[in-house]
TrEMBL record:
Pfam families registered for this protein in UniProt: SecE (PF00584)
Originating species: Undibacterium hunanense
Cellular compartments annotated: Membrane
Subunit structure: Component of the Sec protein translocase complex. Heterotrimer consisting of SecY, SecE and SecG subunits. The heterotrimers can form oligomers, although 1 heterotrimer is thought to be able to translocate proteins. Interacts with the ribosome. Interacts with SecDF, and other proteins may be involved. Interacts with SecA.
UniProt keyword list: Cell membrane, Membrane, Protein transport, Translocation, Transmembrane, Transmembrane helix, Transport
NCBIfam families: PRK05740.1-1 (NF004371), secE_bact (TIGR00964)
The protein's name in its UniProt record: Protein translocase subunit SecE
Length: 127
């Protein structure tokens, strides 16, 4: 017996809600530019209204609810993280800088050795 996950197909109503959300967002942006001669707060209100309507359509769709659930779960997981203290962060940073310095010296030395072997010993070219 196979153990494949089953993915549900969204209904056409959800597709229409997403399409309406895109139309509302585009209408809000278009209204912002069409009302160029009006007061700034009127233009901003038109933009915000279009975006709020779009968010309302998306929030009522299955995709929007899934996104809200994902966002809530992300916040919940972030609260579980144990963040390092200032001292621990400084120590970790010092270790990283030390490793980078040692690695840079190693790579520089390897480059110099390969260059010496290739150009001076094998090819006989003197710099």
């Amino acid at each position: 017996m196979s153990n494949h996950p089953v993915q549900t197909v969204s209904t056409s109503n959800d597709k229409y809600k997403v399409i309406l959300a895109v139309v509302a967002a585009v209408a809000g942006v278009a209204a912002f530019y069409i009302l160029a001669g009006q007061a700034t707060w009127i233009r901003a209100a038109a933009l915000v209204l279009g975006l709020v309507i779009a968010a309302g359509f998306v929030a009522t769709s299955e995709m929007g609810r899934d996104f809200v659930d994902f966002a809530k779960e992300s916040v919940r997981e972030t609260k579980k993280v144990v963040w390092p203290t200032r001292k621990e962060a400084g120590q970790i940073t010092a270790v990283v800088f030390g490793f980078v310095l040692v690695m840079a010296l190693f790579l520089w030395g390897t480059d110099q050795l390969i260059g010496f072997l290739l150009y001076d010993v094998i090819l006989g070219w003197k710099k």
